[in-house]
Design brief:
352 residues, alpha/beta, Isopropylmalate Dehydrogenase, 2 domains, 10-stranded mixed sheet, two-stranded antiparallel ribbon, globular, binds nicotinamide-adenine-dinucleotide
């Protein structure tokens, strides 16, 4: 199969981790007889430096014309003082909105080899952590009106039934492919938007009788994720709640450097990225963990290109390298062998 992938290296550690993921894609192409071509796209701080804009229209267009987009990370201190509309993160919000990717899916799964890296008690980890957070990505408070008038600032949180229904369906469909348990998370004791959310989820539930739907308030969910994460299969929630809960969920699995994500809309063209940021504190040192980006590429093969065997080959290689005791600094523990970013890439490729 021929696929054209738009590649956004971005800022900080972005170029280093993306480089390893591209090498893994090249190895996959060689092993399975595919052709992947890569189109470079400027986004984030580097695009501000080059074009004076975090995502020029022509760069967005390259993404829209691709079969899928791979992103490292954007942002950094250097661009902290640029005007709000021109910040690196604005490029990312514009990319998500431009691609219409309304569903962000983040697995929170503990690798047995990294159980000790979890900050949770051993007896909680032993019960297993394996759930997915489906987060609405292009609505809610991040996309509502933002306004500052004098000493008062306002951000609007708004959802329509249609927006809730389309993300709700992804939640139900995802649960259907897993253990058929969907937990809808909101704040319906306070917010009108959450009461609408809950109503839409329950009317959708009639179409998915095989999926068990439960409701949970977001503050309770934040607590349950650390108290008893084994209870969750799929969580579906709105944009800001999902942003916060998915960072919490990533941390209990050991390291933010391990977690991939996919963002999908109505077409198969998706956006794939690790969940962490550009980590300026370790940029250029060849110590970043590339596994979250490499697993994002595996998700791309599985969900956008319908290549499950290719995805398995990457995930199995990652597992084998962890079995062999190799670790980047963020997941290092006693008795393991410490390796850098490019060496981790080499090891995974050699295991493929
Ligand atoms: P961060 O995720 O970049 O870093 C947090 C901590 O985790 C740091 O100590 C970092 O060294 C470590 N870390 C992150 N990824 C790692 C990896 N792959 N391997 C090893 N360690 C890793 O978050 P931050 O420091 O809050 O943000 C830095 C910049 O990234 C900011 O400009 C922020 O806006 C941006 N950011 C971008 C994205 C994105 O591009 N999707 C997401 C979050 C933050």
């Amino acid at each position: 199969m021929n696929k054209n992938i738009a590649v956004i290296r971005g800022d900080g550690i972005g170029p280093e981790i993306v480089e390893q993921a591209l090498r893994v894609l090249e190895k996959t192409a060689e092993k399975f007889g595919h052709t992947f071509s890569f189109t470079d796209v400027d986004m984030g701080g580097c695009a501000i430096d080059k074009w004076g804009n975090p995502l020029p229209e022509a760069e967005l267009q390259k993404c829209l014309e691709s079969d899928s987009v791979l992103l490292g990370a954007v942002g950094g201190e250097k661009w902290n003082n640029v005007a709000g509309d021109m910040r690196p993160e604005k490029g990312l919000l514009r990319l998500r909105a431009g691609m219409g990717v309304y569903s962000n899916n983040r697995p929170a799964k503990i690798w047995k080899q990294l159980a000790e890296a979890s900050p949770l008690k051993k007896e909680i980890v032993e019960k297993g952590i394996d759930f997915i957070i489906v987060r609405e990505l292009i609505g809610g408070i991040y996309f509502g009106e933002h306004k500052t008038a004098g000493n008062v600032a306002t951000d609007i949180l708004q959802y329509s039934e249609e927006e809730i229904e389309r993300i709700g369906r992804i939640g139900f469909e995802t649960a259907r492919k897993r253990n058929k348990k969907l937990c809808s998370v909101e704040k319906s004791n306070v917010l009108d938007s959450s009461r609408l959310w809950k109503k839409v989820m329950h009317s959708l539930a009639e179409e998915y009788p095989d999926v068990e739907l439960s409701d949970m308030l977001v503050d309770n969910c934040a607590m349950q994720i650390v108290k008893n994460p084994a209870q969750f299969d799929v969580i579906v929630t709105e944009n800001m709640f999902g942003d916060i809960l998915s960072d919490e969920a990533s941390m209990i699995t050991g390291s933010i450097g391990m977690i991939p994500s996919s963002s999908l809309g109505a077409t198969s063209c998706g956006l794939y990225e690790p969940i962490h940021g550009s980590a300026p504190d370790i940029a250029g040192m060849d110590v970043a963990n590339p596994i979250g980006t490499i697993l994002s590429v595996a998700m791309m093969l599985r969900f956008s290109f319908d290549m499950p065997n290719e995805a398995d080959s990457i995930e199995n290689a990652v597992s084998a390298v962890l079995d062999d005791g190799f670790r980047t600094a963020d997941i290092m523990s006693d008795g393991c062998k410490k390796v850098g970013c490019s060496e981790m890439g080499n090891l995974i490729i050699s295991r493929m």
